[in-house]
Amino acid sequence: MARVEIYTTPTCPYCIAAKKLLTQKGAAFEEISVAGDPEGRRAMSARAGGRTTVPQIFIDGRHIGGCDDLYALDGEGGLDPLLATGA
After folding, report:
1. Does residue 18 have a pLDDT over 60?
2. How far is CA 36 from the centre of its chain?
3. Containing H/E element for 13?
4. Residue among 24, 34, 13, 10 at smallest CA distance from 83
5. What's residue 85's pLDDT?
6. Where is the Glutaredoxin domain (predicted)?
7. CA 61: distance to chain centroid?
8. Is the bond leading into 55 cis (omega within 30 degrees of zero)?
9. N or C: which end of the chain has fewer CB within 10 A?
10. pTM of the model
11. CA trace torsion 73, 27, 83, 51 (10° rounding)
């Protein structure tokens, strides 16, 4: 199973939607809250190529992007193979 990391804040509706999709797919994920954590957000942004919004999602270290990117990947049929076998 792939290692999924998702950077979030508690009240972000896009974070909630992304976690819902991952849960529906049966994917375990590590949630990393950057709420009130400027250093954590800077680290997230550095990993995500400068993106500062949440969520930022990584599968086996590969940057997937945000919620819209995750849903687009799923719509293209690319999410399930990544979750099953890793990147």
Report:
1. yes
2. 19
3. helix 13-24
4. 24
5. 72
6. 4-64
7. 10
8. yes
9. N
10. 0.94
11. 50
Q: How far is residue 58's CA from residue 64's CA, in Å, rounded to a whole number? A: 5
- Residue 7 tokens, joined: 């950077």
Q: Please answer whether residues 48 and 56 qualify as being in contact, where contact means their C-beta atoms are separated by less than 8 angstroms.
A: yes
What does DSSP assign to residue 24?
H
Give the pairing type, strands 30-33 and 4-8. Answer: parallel
The rounded distance, in Å, linking the Cα atoms of 30 and 40 is 14
Residue 63 has pLDDT above 80, yes or no: yes
Cα distance between residue 47 and residue 80, in whole Å: 23
- 3-class DSSP state of 5: strand
- Written as six digits, the tokens of 17 are 């939607």
CA nearest to 56, candidates 32, 35, 37:
32
